Amino acid sequence: MAMVSAVSSDSGPSQPRLPGTPGKPAGKPVRSRVVLAMEGVTKSYPNGKVALRGVDLVVPEGDFVFLVGPSGAGKSTIIKLLIRDEMATKGVVLLDGRDLARLKRKEVPRIRRKIGIVFQDFKLLPHKSVRENVAFALEVTGAPRRSIGPVVDRVLRVVGLTGQADQLPGQLSGGEQQRTAIARALVHNPRLFIADEPTGNLDPLISWEIIQLLLRINELGVTVLMATHNAEVVTALRKRVVALEDGRVVRDQTEAAYHRED
Amino acid sequence: MIAFVAFSLRRAWQGLWHNRLMSVAATATMVLMLALLSGLIILLTGLDATLKYVEQEVQVVAYLKDSANPQDVNLLETALGQMPQVTEVSYVSKDQALTDFLGRHPDEAEVVNSLPTNPLPASLQINLRDPNDYLDVAAYLRNQPPVDRVLNIKQTVDQMVTVIGILRAGGIGVLVVVGLIVLFIIVNTIRLAVVSRADEIEIMRLVGASDAFIRWPFIFEGALVGLFGALITIAVLWLGQGPITTVMADYFKVLPVEASATVGRDVALVVLGTGVGIGVLGSYLSIRSYLIR
Ligand SMILES: Nc1ncnc2c1ncn2[C@@H]1O[C@H](COP(=O)(O)OP(=O)(O)OP(=O)(O)O)[C@@H](O)[C@H]1O
Ligand SMILES: [Mg+2]
To answer: Who among A85, A106, A110 is closest to B208 (CB)?
Structure first.
C-alpha cells in the first residue's frame, strides 16, 4: 500500500526507483509523474484461466516501453486492465494516479480518454472516410461540433494523412489504415499511448514507418506502451523492455534487446 | 442537452441508413408482428362483443298467477327495475303471450281458438347484467306472491357461463402468448441489428464514449424502427379497413351488437404504443451487454 500512495499523481520524494528513466540518476529526488503503475496484479478470467500472476510495473511519464513475450503471456490482458475493460482480480492498477478499481462507472469514459489505443486490426469503420473515422472519436465523446475540424486536421498532419483525408479505409494501404487509427487515438491528447501488436498485419518496411510515428508521438511527450512480437524492432531501438512469460514479469530492462524463443 | 438529442437522432438516422438491410428486416418483422397482434385484437374485440350480446340474452322469465293483483305486479316490476343486477324488465300480458305464441306457431291457431279461455300466463321477462346473477334473481322471484313459477334454465345458464368464461380466458391467453412471441421476435431482430454493429460500439468504448452516448442513438434507432413499423402497419390496416369492416359488418348484422366505434382508434394506438415501446425495449436490452461493466 505504501508504494501505491507513492505512485499517486502527486508522488513525493519517497518515490521508488524507477527502472528505465533516462537522465535521472538514482538517489536524486525526482518529481516525475507516473502514468501507470501496477502492483501485485493478478488476473483470472471467469473461466478460471489465470492470465497474470503478481505483476508489478511502473511507467513514468515520457517512457517508451515494449511489452514482449510469447503468445498467451498476458500482454493484451495488461492492456485490457489499463483501459478498464477488465478488472484486476488482485492487486492495484493506477492510471494517472487513479485507482481503476475504485473508479465509478461514470468516470471510466473520462479515464479512457487519457489513453490512445491502437490494435493489430485497425478497427476503422469501413463506411466512413479517414476524416470521419477520426472525427467519430470526438463526436461520440460529446465534443462541440465546431471544435472537431481543427483537431482532426492537426492529428492528420501528425500522422501525415492530410492528402488521404477523404478516402475510405478500403482505399488505403495497411500502413495508412494504421496511421488513421493512430490519428484517431490522438484526438484527446492522451497521456498514454497503447499499441497492441500495431505492426502485426504489416510488412517490415511499413512496420518501421509505424514505429517511427510512435517514436515521434513519444517525442511529443506522450508515454508509449507497445506490445509486440517484433524482435527486430525491439532490439534495434534499445528502449525499455518488459518481458512477460506465463503471466509473470520475467525481465524489465532499459535499453534492452529481445530475442524470441517462441 | 439539445445538442445531445440532436447528436443521438443524427446517429440513429445514420445507423438506420448505413444498415439499410438490417433496418428493413427489423421494420418488416415489426410490421408482420404488429399486424398479427392487431388482427388478433380485432378478432378478440369481435368475440367479446359477441359474448356480451349472448350474456345480455339471458332472461329470467317469471310466470305470474292469473289471480295476481295488478298492483302487486306493478310493485314487483318496479322493485326489479331497481335491482342492480337487472338491466330491463318487461311485462308480457296474457293477450300478448297468446299473440306471440300464435306468431310463432300459426298452425296451432285452431286448437287455441277452440279453447274456452286463454291458457297462457302473463309473465315478467327480466334481462340481467351478468348471467351469474341468475340464481339470486330467480330465488328472489320465487318468493314473490304474484309469481307462479320461474322458468328453470339454470343448467343452460351454467353451461353458457362456463363456455363464455373459457372463451374469454382463452382469448386473453392467446393474446398474452402472441404478445410474448411478438416481443421475443422483435427484441431478437433488434439484437441482431445491434450485434452487427458491435465493432462500432467497441470503437465508441475505446475512444471513451460515455454510456449515454452509446445507448441513446440505439434507443432512438429502436424507437424509429418501431415508429415506422407501426405507421406502416396502421397504413396497411387502413387500406384493409374496407374489406375488414365488410366482413365485420356482416358478422355484426347477425348479432344486433353495436360495434364499438373506437375499435379503429384503439387498435391504432395499441399498434403505435407497442411498436415504439418494443423498439425501445429491444434496443435497451440489446445494448446493455455492451456498456461499461
Ligand atoms: N476473455 C478471456 N477469457 C478467458 N481467457 C482469456 C481471455 N482473454 C485472454 N485469455 C487467456 O489469457 C491468457 C493471456 O492472454 P493475452 O491475450 O493477454 O495474451 P497475449 O500475451 O496478448 O498473447 P498474444 O501475443 O497471442 O496476443 C491466454 O492464455 C488467453 O487464452
Ligand atoms: Mg495479445
So the answer is: A110
